[in-house]
DNA sequence: GATTGTCAAATCGTCCCACAATCCTATACC
DNA sequence: GGTATAGGATTGTGGGACGATTTGACAATC
């Protein structure tokens, strides 16, 4: 259940909302609330977090929610309101389907040093988070790694697709009881993939590694994810 | 410039708006207005088509517009309102980038008879439209063909991505002066691709054909598309 | 004649309130 | 114990208000 205190508290933490347009930043905040798990999958998004946390009117919050519905982070049930999306097992399969399509193809794309750097930065961010036992950070870094990988394709559209798909995947983790350490064993594999592709420049091998990675992650996830 | 008469006229044509939720159907109508070219790229979407054409309040129309911004059909300029998106040349390149990613991969996917049927239905719809000199119909059928192709991948997410990308491509055509007959020469190639893939079952050959198709279409488009 | 400055009208972004439709809950009844 | 029902809460949408911003015209200045 959601209490007003919670949002008053968060609002105090994040400060008031200030920028030119109001809807986008409001949507950003809501998105973060969801991605970081402050709003659990299945949980209702009350109609007036707007006033309490975001400091925007009901209409405005609705616009923001509508955007997040479009991003598959929320669902809307008529006359019942907005809820944090609860991905099904099929959704998980589909997410990995898309990831295979994009990420494996990215292995075959060319790359420049800037792109390679972003990949390695993500790898290192993950390892650093691991050393600090910052599990949320590990998850974020992992997302970043895979976004960096798909960014090698150099398509703005694909980047946003990938961001959305990975955000949706976060919902899956928040819907599981114990997902904290899920990504830990995958960190070394991230590095291996990065080095195979970007240093050794053995794309086919990297593709095989990534295929294994995705297969393993999907299976492991589906093993514990409730229907 | 937009006149009220125009929307009154369209409203009479399309009838009043009726369904459970109101925003989605309103967005659907706006989307059609754009896809069918009644609203030209670059044109402003007045803040109150809502009342005049959609029969919804300003707030509601805003929500609908916001959705279409998310679909890349509209852009929003602060304090100036919503405009039909005007794709750049880079956008065109990126659209084809995504299409290659998806459609070429679809050549390698398996398929069932239902999927194959949808492809051939689209091919035939195109040929029929051609025989009736219905150029708009040819364009629609072509969209349908490529959606059917990418649907072979069997991913809900990819289907919607593809729909969006193709809708965006329509903007490109509406932004050109003379795009009527653009797709005519591509109809036989659609059939050839379909038969190579689904009847002869020569996926590599189909992939080559489709690669050629996409390369040609992109080049031909960029040749005439203004910067 | 071109640039700049000013001002009014139009439009936009947002908030606020109203009200019907719907859902939720708890109480009463069988 | 289960079902019906009434009342309250919440949602979806309409419509208006108001400040902020843009736009376009017109005057002032270089």
Automatic annotation (TrEMBL), chains A, B:
<dbReference type="InterPro" id="IPR036388">
    <property type="entry name" value="WH-like_DNA-bd_sf"/>
</dbReference>
<keyword id="KW-0238">DNA-binding</keyword>
<keyword id="KW-0805">Transcription regulation</keyword>
<protein>
    <submittedName>
        <fullName>DNA-binding GntR family transcriptional regulator</fullName>
    </submittedName>
</protein>
<dbReference type="Pfam" id="PF07729">
    <property type="entry name" value="FCD"/>
</dbReference>
<dbReference type="GO" id="GO:0003700">
    <property type="term" value="F:DNA-binding transcription factor activity"/>
</dbReference>
<feature type="domain" description="HTH gntR-type">
    <location>
        <begin position="20"/>
        <end position="87"/>
    </location>
</feature>
<dbReference type="InterPro" id="IPR000524">
    <property type="entry name" value="Tscrpt_reg_HTH_GntR"/>
</dbReference>
<dbReference type="GO" id="GO:0003677">
    <property type="term" value="F:DNA binding"/>
</dbReference>
<dbReference type="InterPro" id="IPR011711">
    <property type="entry name" value="GntR_C"/>
</dbReference>
<dbReference type="Pfam" id="PF00392">
    <property type="entry name" value="GntR"/>
</dbReference>
<dbReference type="InterPro" id="IPR036390">
    <property type="entry name" value="WH_DNA-bd_sf"/>
</dbReference>
<dbReference type="InterPro" id="IPR008920">
    <property type="entry name" value="TF_FadR/GntR_C"/>
</dbReference>
<keyword id="KW-0804">Transcription</keyword>
């Amino acid at each position: 259940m959601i209490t007003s205190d919670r949002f008053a508290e968060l609002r105090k933490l994040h400060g008031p909302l200030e920028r030119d347009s109001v809807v986008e930043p409001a949507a950003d905040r809501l998105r973060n609330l969801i991605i970081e798990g402050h709003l659990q999958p299945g949980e209702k998004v009350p109609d007036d977090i707007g006033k309490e946390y975001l400091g925007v009117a009901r209409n405005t919050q609705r616009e923001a929610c509508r955007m997040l519905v479009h991003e598959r982070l929320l669902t809307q049930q008529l006359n019942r309101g907005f809820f944090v999306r609860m991905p099904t097992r099929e959704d998980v399969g589909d997410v990995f389907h898309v990831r295979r399509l994009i990420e494996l193809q990215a292995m075959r794309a060319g790359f420049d040093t800037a792109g390679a750097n972003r990949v390695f930065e993500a790898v290192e961010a993950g390892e650093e988070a691991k050393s600090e036992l910052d599990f949320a950070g590990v998850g974020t870094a992992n997302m970043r790694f895979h976004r960096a990988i798909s960014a090698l394709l150099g398509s703005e559209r694909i980047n946003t697709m990938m961001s959305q798909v990975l955000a949706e995947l976060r919902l899956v983790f928040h819907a599981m009881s114990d997902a904290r350490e899920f990504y830990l064993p995958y960190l070394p594999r991230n590095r291996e993939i990065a080095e195979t592709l970007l240093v050794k420049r053995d794309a086919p091998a990297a593709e095989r590694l990534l295929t294994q990675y995705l297969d393993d992650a999907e299976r492991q996830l589906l093993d514990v994810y409730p229907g």
